[in-house]
């Protein structure tokens, strides 16, 4: 792992399996094809970051700011995206099966060909216009 990860960092293909990056500022970082499985990215700043094809399996992104991030083709299976900001994020072809999206904001996100089977959402989740949560196989949680 780089000694210091900073905004705009080149993290392409890096293995950060299980890394603790809580509160990290990775704004506009390029983590294409990076392995971030089971990493802690809670409250991380990932605004405009490039995470195309990244492995984010079981990664915690609770309250992370992913506005405008490119997650095309990324694997976010069972990721914790509770209260994450995904406004205008590119999720085209990403896999969010079993992910927690409770309280997340996906306003204006590109979710074409995104797999949402068994992803959890609640009454506070803001889904993009045109996404039918039931048809996508999402699970409504809460009262």
What this model shows, in words?
The protein has about 140 residues and is mostly loops. The chain has a single domain (about 1-120), classed as Pectate Lyase C-like, CATH 2.160.20. The chain has strands at about 120, 140. Strands 1-2 form a two-stranded parallel sheet. The mean pLDDT is about 95.
| Helical stretch tally | 0
Considering DSSP H and I runs of 4 or more, what fraction of the residues is helical? Answer: under 10%
Number of beta-strand segments: 2
Please write the string of helix (H) and strand (E) elements: EE
The gyration radius over C-alpha positions equals 14 Å
Low-confidence stretches: none
SSE class: little secondary structure
Please identify the top-level CATH class.
Mainly Beta
Main beta sheet strand tally, sense and closure: 2 strands, parallel
Q: What proportion strand?
A: under 5%
CATH topology group: Pectate Lyase C-like
CATH superfamily: E3 ubiquitin-protein ligase SopA
Q: How many domains make up the 3D coordinates?
A: 1
Shape: globular
- Shape-level CATH architecture: 3 Solenoid
What do the pLDDT scores average to?
96
Distance between the termini: 42 Å
Major sheet strand order: 1-2
Keywords:
two-stranded parallel sheet; 143 residues; little secondary structure
Summary of the model, kept short:
With 143 residues, this protein is low in regular secondary structure. The chain is 0% helix and 3% strand. It has one domain: Pectate Lyase C-like, CATH 2.160.20.80.
Show the helix and strand layout.
Layout (H helix, E strand, L loop, with lengths): L119 E2 L17 E2 L3
Parallel strand pairs: 1-2
């Amino acid at each position: 792992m780089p000694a210091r990860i900073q905004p705009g960092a080149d993290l392409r293909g890096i293995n950060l399996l299980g890394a603790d990056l809580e509160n990290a500022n990775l704004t506009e970082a390029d983590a294409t094809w990076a392995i971030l499985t089971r990493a802690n990215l809670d409250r991380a700043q990932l605004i405009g970051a490039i995470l195309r094809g990244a492995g984010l399996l079981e990664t915690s992104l609770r309250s992370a700011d992913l506005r405008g991030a490119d997650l095309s083709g990324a694997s976010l299976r069972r990721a914790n995206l509770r209260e994450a900001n995904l406004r205008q994020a590119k999720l085209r072809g990403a896999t969010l099966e079993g992910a927690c999206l409770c309280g997340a904001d996906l306003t204006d996100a590109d979710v074409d060909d995104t797999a949402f089977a068994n992803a959890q959402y609640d009454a506070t989740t803001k889904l993009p216009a045109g996404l039918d949560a039931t048809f996508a196989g999402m699970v409504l949680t809460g009262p």
